[in-house]
Structure formats: structure tokens, C-alpha cells
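From: lab user (bench 3)
To: helpdesk
Subject: output format question, protein + iron/sulfur cluster

Hello, I'm new to running complex predictions and I'm not sure whether the block I got back is the full result or only part of it. Here's what I submitted:
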Amino acid sequence: MLLKNYHKEVFRAKCNTSFQSVHCIAKLDQDISAVLPYLNAELGGYAYLRDPPAVTFKSAGKLITVQGREIAVNALQDAQEAEKILQWLKIEINTVWERRSEIEPSFESAAKPQVIEILRCLPRTNCRECGSPTCLVFATLVAQGIKTAQACPPISADQQQHLDGYMRGFRLME
Ligand code: SF4
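Helpdesk reply: Thanks, we reran it on our side. This is the complete output you should expect:
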């Protein structure tokens, strides 16, 4: 087992303590730098840095950054959600480490969703029901993993199916 223990701290953003969401930093007891290119290959990191090694994932509006000695997760509901994600990551890290001889390590960032492709799936009426001033702004938020198709009330079932199908290729976990 590569990662055995971590110690997490859950806190509100210092820049605006009125934000409802919390952040989490987990300090790792073991250095997991060696697994990062394998984790990137298996889970499709949104961004990969070589030096120092770090891989970032986007999932359901959260950014999850894994470094050699630290894991950071933002936009969490509470400490319980933070622990759920850390436990899931610990299993993934250890499973990937055990299987590393079968995996081609990746030092590249994964392809990102294209705003224009997302925009094609939207009604494009700029009705503002989603809270964004235009469909283009909403599409940008979807591309960044901040919003999902469900936040566009007038989207048709067919359009939603297309958008969900397109975005599925870029999501880490539901
Ligand atoms: S609710 Fe949908 S159609 Fe209306 S502006 Fe937002 S993305 Fe466009």
C-alpha cells in the first residue's frame, strides 16, 4: 500500500467566510509523487504538472489537486463529503499503484471540453433562466465543470442527452 494515512483540515475560504462551501487540505503521511503519472493516465487529469509533480481533476464542480504530499479539494458541502472523496482517492491511488506495471504513465493534460460543442447542445435563446447572462457564458461554466445541463430549465430531453453524453467523457466521478 502506497498511501496509508492522511490528516485533513476542512475550512472556509479566508477571502469570503460567508461562502457556504468549504475547502479541504489533506497532508499525506507518505510521498505519493511516483504514482501521479499513473493516476493521471487512469483517471484523465484535467491538468498535469511535471515539476513538482501534480495532477488536477475536475468533478461535479470541484477541483481536486493531488501532489506528492498533499491533496486539496475545493467547493465541498461539508467535512463528510471531504472524507468521502479522500477515501475514494486513497483507494484509487493504492489500486493504481498496485497495477502500475500494466499502465502506461501519462505526463500530459487531458483534452478539455470545447465551449462551442457545449453551446451547440443548448437552446441558445439567452433567456437567463440559468442565472447566466447568455448561453455562451453558461456553456463556459459547463466546460469548467461549474454547471451541468440540469441548470438550464428550457433544455430539451434530446439536447440534455447530447450534452450529458459529450461531458461524460471529461468527468471523473458522478
Ligand atoms: S437557461 Fe439555458 S437557454 Fe436560457 S440562457 Fe441559460 S443556457 Fe441559455
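A quick orientation on your result: The chain has a mean pLDDT of 88. Let us know if anything else is unclear.
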